[in-house]
Amino acid sequence: MKKLIIIIVFLIFESYQLYTELRYAVWYNAYRLDVKNEKATKEKIDEHFEKFSQLKIDDVFFLVKDHNGLAYYKTSYMKQACEWDVLEYVIKKAKKHNLKIHAYLNVFMEGEDFINQYPEYAELRKNGKKTRWTSPAIKEVRTRILNIIKEIIQNYPIDGIQLDRIRYEGYKDIGYNPESVSLYLEQYKKSPEPNDNDFYQFKCDLISSFVKEAYQLVKNYNKNIEFSCAVFATPTNSKKNYISQQWDLWVKNGWLDVVYPMAYTSDNKIFKKYLMENLQVISNTSYNVKLIMGIGVYCDGMTSTKLAEQIKLCADAPQVSGVCFFNAYSIFENPKFFEVIKNFKK
After folding, report:
1. Nearest to 227 by CA among 275, 284, 287
2. Contact 67/113 with Cβ under 8 angstroms?
3. Nearest CA among 81, 77, 36, 76 for reference residue 63
């Protein structure tokens, strides 16, 4: 009986330790705010960080380059969303609440204004249709994004950099920018075809080499800045969607500190399947790459019960370092979700 009591106490202690140490992160943006109204936006940011503190959030991922190519900080490389420095204010609030702040940016997706100004940078479908995505085969495109990263880490006291949309748009017949085609012909001595595995791997390699460059850039500047990527739910999921995001290779080669799979689903059987595959990816590397699972709070069909189950699945897996919620506004707008997140972590 005494041994049984000791075992029960030990298990309770282990569970408490696990849930206490579970890292909470959240993706957060300002494009949903009227940033041209500086006073009102700052008041909203104040309110939001008070809520982050109540939720026991550890890390805030703030979007510094959005899906329209707009910047929320002082930059030499993009059009700014407003005249004042939103990132500077967000960092100030994060430090006040003792939260870590990461700058995350959309890498290859741009706004129409940028694409119209630099049409030669646009990625193309096979039929010549121009997209709002830039080609990772173009040196100037890659250099510009690396300069954006350099600008942020040199000018702002951030805790991390995260790459988002570090991929192709999800079509088989994408990657036909003339520079990309020329490079493929040079390397493979044949024309690119949508169903050719060599062409798909060529695109994967372009994305992977950029991740490696960005990782080395950050670490050469300051090894303490955490480098991460927001990726599709699993490597299998990435391949099915034709996005050329071979992120298991990035983990295997240690080009990340943390990987954030966007396992967005309200179906917990699917979520568990994603989790199991990602645990296998992490276990197959000798590098200490941490796994933090992205939970889609916004998903249709998500309930407070399902949300709690997803958090618990992650908390019960020792190889999972934490969870990251997408996104902050979906939590703010649903009091039940707010309470689940607030009360789960001890």
Report:
1. 287
2. no
3. 81
Cα–chain center distance at 36: 26
Which of 320, 311, 316 is closest to 345 using CA atoms? 311
Asked if pLDDT for residue 114 goes beyond 90, the answer is yes
CB 152 within 8 A of CB 73: yes
User: C-alpha dihedral over 183, 189, 195, 198, to 10 degrees?
Assistant: -80
Predicted confidence band of residue 286 (pLDDT cuts 50, 70, 90):
confident
Contacts of 110 (CB under 8 A, 6+ apart): 68, 69, 121, 132, 133, 134
In order of their start, the domains of the chain are: 24-344 (3.20.20.80)
Each residue's pLDDT tens digit, 226-272: 999 999 999 999 999 999 999 999 999 999 999 999 999 999 999 99
pTM score: 0.94
CA distances from 68 to 107, 114, 160, 327 (A): 11, 9, 22, 18
DSSP per residue, 198-263:
HHHHHHHHHHHHHHHHHHHHHHHH-TTSEEEEEEESSHHHHHHTT----HHHHHHTT--SEEEEE-
Q: Any long-range contacts for 122-126 (C-beta under 8 Å, 24+ apart)?
A: 122/177, 123/168, 123/169, 123/174, 123/175, 123/176, 123/177, 123/180, 124/174, 124/175, 124/176, 124/177, 125/171, 125/173, 125/174, 125/176, 126/173, 126/174, 126/176, 126/194
Is 187 within 8 Å of 127 (Cβ atoms)? Answer: no
Angstrom distance (rounded) from CA 140 to CA 118: 11
Burial class (CB in 10 A: 0-12, 13-18, 19+), 212: middle
Q: Give per-residue pLDDT as tens, 49-91.
A: 999 999 999 999 999 999 999 999 999 999 999 999 999 999 9
- CB-count exposure of residue 5 (10 Å: 0-12, 13-18, 19+): exposed
